[in-house]
Amino acid sequence: MARIRYLAAASLALGLCLASPCAHASDPWPGEAIKPPPNLNIILDYNAFAAAGSYGQTDGMVDHQHTRISVYVQALRYIHTFDVEGVLAGVQLYVPHASFIGNQQIGLSDIPAPAGLPPGTPSYGAGHASLNHADGFGQPSFSAFFFPYYDPRTSTGLVLTAWVSPPIGSYDSETSLNYNQNLWTGELEAGLRTTLAGQPDGRNLALEVWGESYFYGSNGGAGLVSPAVYANSIPPIYQIYHEIDPAVPASNPLRAQSVTPARFSMQPTEELRVYLPYEFFPKTLATISPGFYQSFGGKGVYKLADGTKVDSGTRTDETQLRLILSTYIAPHWQIAVNGEYDVMAHGGPLYRTIDLRIGAVF
User: Fold this and answer.
1) Cα separation of 217 and 304, whole Å?
2) What pTM does this model have?
3) CA angle 226-232-238, nearest 5°?
4) For 104-124, how does the pLDDT look when each residue is reduced to its tens digit (9 = 90+)?
5) How many CA atoms lie within 13 A of 176 on its CB side?
6) Using CA atoms, how far apart are residues 164 and 170, in angstroms rounded to an integer?
7) Do residues 124 and 7 make contact, with C-beta atoms less than 8 angstroms apart?
């Protein structure tokens, strides 16, 4: 079992935003900082379903009404390890595919009255922004990693990884939701693991900490998409205002979708993950791992043709709780389930995610 104790993994970062989603290949699960043997091949199949019923504004306010975003993501990952002058290293390839399920929309707590109407004119009230979407393959990601230090006596190790993701895959500049960023993306990642209690080959409690830094290019073929806006119930007074001035909306959609060509860029993103994996049944390496995730930065900005810069309102500022259960069901087959619960998201949906991962080691 020592040969297959290590099973590298990457869950799916489903930070889908109104204009430019943040979908990162690297999202390490517990166990990736355990040094594997050389000449190992690992194939991982991910099946994640994520749904959001609320949306976090950039100021931290959360809108719970009429938000419905749901997506199914399947991904394949291949890892190969080898020895370089006594140092364990490896390469990886990760390819995702996303399918949005049903109608997607962001709830709006209060749609204000148009400018220029008499004081005291009521707002349109609650409503939603309808989001069109593009299904298809996400950007492939390539990675190389190595273990500069590992002590098998305490399962204490350090792993360093570099990722690159080219801007290829499915992307539609006229849709509100794309799984693809269509940006060159580079990442530097470090993972540290040590055993806190017990022995690595028996029942044990470990600590695993991961830090990542992402850097982005820009997308010169992007579109600043203003989604269609609908009111749940339009006050009757707007029919009168519409008869006086047809420019005042009196029926849905209050605003039709529009797309303005633009260049999109993102500020760097930082991420932190902390896990406490407890291996409670060493015979099958059965492990339960509570975890915490926090991201920072990732502000998106559009630059229009006239040079005007527009804040996209999207961020990668997210706080999330995780719980992962994994076990081997055969000598070379592992199954793992990951549950994720967004506590807060600034400039993005708050997701509830279930991710099933099946791994084969040979």
Assistant:
1) 17
2) 0.89
3) 85
4) 999 998 999 999 999 999 999
5) 20
6) 17
7) no
